[in-house]
Write a structure and sequence with these properties.
The protein is 38% helix and 0% strand. The model has no long low-confidence stretch (mean pLDDT 79).
């Protein structure tokens, strides 16, 4: 082996502390992402149906 050090690739941003994830519990309403997505899609469909049934 040679005595020269190999250059290492730079560390990702998470290792530099630029991106942090918190595992602490927070206050507020907790729902699963699937339910939130379902509610959003349902509201969009409801608005479209209402616009078709009751045009201005």
């Amino acid at each position: 082996m040679s005595s020269r050090k190999r250059k290492e690739a730079p560390m990702p941003a998470t290792a530099a502390g630029l991106l942090r994830f918190f595992e602490d519990e927070s206050k507020g309403i907790k729902i699963r992402p699937e339910i939130a997505l379902g509610i959003g899609i349902t509201l969009m469909i409801l608005v479209l149906v209402m616009r078709l049934l009751f045009p201005i």
